């Protein structure tokens, strides 16, 4: 039994057009060829994929399921074809990338540079709102952020999922804990980010939901500032768990109320074209990230 590419294309074309004739015109083969491909598939697997209603073919429930699976396979095939058609390494050019978190964005950039070392990458690091604005205003070609809006303006691909964690100094009383609650954290000095930070919006939302209104002892406007404040024992901070590769003894502790994982996405304007943009999206598979495909 063979689910060949020709049969899959025929099924999806009939599904989308509603008739053998229209599907044949779309693919560029004869009507009898399309009909034979579908009937052969039905016969081999002893299933019904379409029911006739007048001049229209109505997909069965089984066909609707098959259509979804075939569409995913065709998308993967299109990605593979795009990679094969790149015709070698770019000789140069510049790609502008906006990062909300140093990581995982830097890991993606590193994977891209390993594949295409001759391409210059210009990196802008900023708050969540600044990076979204940079993509919209085309100051950067691609952004990497958590919680990218489900907006038709954007093309998005998830690179991993992560949650916000608490950051503690190596000598802090909580540094050996495997999990803490917000109620426990408010008894200690806290370090916050400005409200245009995706981290801070997530933290603020969790505190509101818990009925708590903490007053931070310190507010810092950058992630590095947050890490330096915690490293100097100025309070407990918050960060996306994969937001930095820095390893200097700072403890990352899961917070009970911040357990929900959020997708971190590569995104660009939906109409943004160009070889380097496409190559960056494809380079995700060569990175050390372990997020969903």
Task: Outline the structure in words.
With 293 residues, the chain is α/β, with parallel strands linked by helices. It is built from ten helices and twelve strands. Strands 4-3-5-12-6 form a five-stranded mixed β-sheet, sandwiched between helices. Strands 10-7-11 form a three-stranded antiparallel β-sheet. Helix 5 links the parallel strand 3 (94-99) and strand 4. Helix 1 (5-17) crosses helix 2. The longest helix has 24 residues, at 61-84. It is elongated. The model has no long low-confidence stretch (mean pLDDT 86).
What's the helix and strand layout?
Elements: H1 5-17, H2 20-27, H3 31-45, E1 50-53, E2 56-59, H4 61-84, E3 94-99, H5 102-115, E4 120-125, H6 128-136, E5 142-146, E6 154-162, E7 164-168, H7 182-185, E8 191-192, H8 198-209, E9 218-219, H9 223-231, E10 237-240, E11 251-254, E12 262-269, H10 275-283
Parallel strand pairs: 3-4, 3-5, 8-9
Antiparallel strand pairs: 1-2, 5-12, 6-12, 7-10, 7-11
Gyration radius from CA atoms, angstroms? 25 Å
Compute the average pLDDT: 86
Identify low-pLDDT runs.
Answer: none
Helix and strand sequence? HHHEEHEHEHEEEHEHEHEEEH
Report on the biggest sheet.
5 strands, mixed
Percent helix, as a range, is 25-40%
Main-sheet strand order equals: 4-3-5-12-6
Percentage of residues in DSSP E strands: 15-25%
Query: Which structural class do you get from the secondary structure elements?
Result: alpha/beta
User: Based on DSSP secondary structure assignment, what is the total number of beta strands?
Assistant: 12
Shape verdict = elongated
Termini separation: 29 Å
Question: With helices defined by DSSP (H or I, 4 residues minimum), what is the helix count?
Answer: 10
């Amino acid at each position: 039994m063979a689910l060949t590419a020709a049969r899959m294309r025929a099924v999806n074309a009939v599904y989308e057009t509603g008739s053998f004739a229209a599907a044949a015109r779309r693919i560029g083969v004869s009507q009898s060829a399309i009909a034979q491909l579908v009937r052969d598939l039905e016969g081999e697997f002893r299933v019904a994929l379409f029911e006739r209603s007048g001049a229209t073919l109505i997909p069965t429930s089984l066909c609707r399921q098959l259509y979804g699976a075939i569409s995913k396979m065709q998308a993967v095939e299109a990605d593979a074809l795009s990679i094969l058609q790149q015709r070698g390494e770019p000789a140069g050019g510049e790609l502008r990338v906006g990062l909300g978190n140093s990581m995982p964005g830097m890991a993606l950039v590193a994977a891209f540079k390993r594949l295409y070392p001759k391409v210059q990458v210009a990196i802008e690091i900023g708050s969540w709102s600044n990076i979204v604005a940079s993509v919209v205003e085309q100051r950067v070609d691609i952004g990497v952020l958590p919680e990218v809006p489900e907006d038709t303006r954007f093309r998005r691909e998830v690179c991993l999922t992560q949650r916000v964690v608490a950051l503690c100094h190596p000598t802090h009383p909580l540094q050996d804990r495997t999990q803490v609650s917000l109620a426990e954290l408010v008894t200690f000095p806290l370090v916050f980010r400005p409200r245009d930070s995706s981290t801070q919006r997530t933290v603020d939302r969790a505190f509101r939901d818990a009925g708590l209104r903490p007053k931070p002892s310190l507010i810092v406007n950058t992630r590095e500032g947050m890490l330096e404040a915690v490293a100097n024992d100025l309070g407990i901070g918050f960060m996306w768990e994969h937001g930095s590769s820095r390893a200097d003894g700072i403890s990352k502790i899961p917070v009970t109320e911040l357990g929900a994982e959020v997708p971190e996405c590569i995104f660009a304007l939906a109409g943004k074209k160009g070889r380097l943009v496409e190559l960056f999206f494809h380079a995700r598979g060569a990175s050390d990230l372990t997020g969903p495909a």
